[in-house]
Amino acid sequence: MNCQTCQFEIEELELSEGLSDEARAHLSVCPVCRAFHDERQALKRLVGSLEAVTVPHDFDFRLRARLAAAKEAGNHRFSWRSFVASAPAIGLAATFALLIAGFVFYNQMKSKPPSTAAVGNQPGEVTRQETPAKPVIQSGSSVSETTASGATPEASPTREQDNPSPTVLTAGIEREPSRSTGTSKNISRRQRRQLDSGAQPEIVTNEAAVRAAQQIVPGSAPPFNTAAHSIVEVPVRSAAQPMRVSVDDRDGAKRTLTLEPVIFGSQDFTGRERPSIASSQGIW
Amino acid sequence: MSTLTSIDDLRFGTAVPQTVVAEEPLTDHALLEATRLGDEAAFAEIVSRYRNQITSYIYRMLNDYDSAVDLAQETFVRVYQAAERYQTSYAFSTYIYRIATNLAISELRKRKRRHLISLTGFFQQTEEEEAREFNPPDAAPLQDVVLVDTERRAAVARAISTLPEKYRAPLVLRDVEGKSYDEIAHILETSEGTVKSRISRARGFLRDKLSAYL
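YS: structure for the whole thing
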């Protein structure tokens, strides 16, 4: 037996076993392995000399309290299965109510017309378009209506006949599609509901536009006088976004003007990038 | 002349049997089976069998008596809660030591994350050196052997507590608790060869730390 094998045997010796005869014979002639053996034995004695600790007197009492608390927590744990098993009538009633609610909801969804379809293309009717990020201000005699969402009221033929003015000014705010916000979607939804219920779409404009809009009857636009209303005020909801105003006449010619945002207080001199901290309400 | 111990012993006209049948202690598996059926006394018997062993083992792992008692109780709570899922594949002692080991190792890792600062650490010379109690050297020779033993045991406990956890558990199970390699392998859920290797490494560490006492 060599030293490695002997030390291996000493190291892995089970507690109830003794060294083999070969190992003992090797220990008697090898001082290195004997020193290793003595050192390991001393170390085992040293570690084994650690006294075992005993539990405190109130160990059982505290353990019982802990088990009771654990049981209590387990009893209070809510389980649908146990709830339904304990009250089958309530579970059945709840299931029935859910089924009825689902059926009613399904019927309502089924009877609702699709939101993207046009309401009508007859003259005098308002045609809705799915352009939520393209609000348009249409001006009759002055500024008539401002829709902040995709509702784009167009001049109807009847209106054109009653209003032989050669020029119809349409000013629109076109926002970038990627910048469309949840607000415009909300307004679009609200306006869609109003259209569904037959009400006029909500007008968001300034005071001059409100006054002018009160004089407008759908289907008969008053003549537009550009000299009297040379200035068209356009409400800007977000100054941080570029505004595009499209002006077109009745012949189909269309001009688009892009107005860069004017920001006071924190003008960006480094480029045309939006500031990192910018919201639709302003720049901070 | 036999003595009466209860009113039931007064059976007129019948002989009172005096033979005492020596009851063999129930095995751990039987006790746990009884616990599963709702026998609280059986679980109390399990607790009385293992409470000192488990507390002592966790104490050697943590070197903190209060935490050891707390985790020992948590061990029994978990045994009780998992009594229905217990399978008799291994010995119950292996099962309960495995729970205790996992709890102790979790506690050690929590402490490592918390970065507890020991007040005695201010007296360390370097970061490598282990923490030692604020015990200024006394020039006077120790007269009492008990004091020497106490100091030696404290040194051994401190040395064990500085071992890495993967070496500490097998060493304590082997040299303090006296478990076999096979049992340690089952408790730690590793191979027997790994256990032997780790114990050998742990003894090497301890030999370096306790060379003054060898």
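YS: worth flagging: Helices of chain B lie at 28-36, 40-62, 65-81, 92-114, 145-161, 165-176, 181-188, 192-209.
IM: good catch. Also Chain B has eight helices and no strands.
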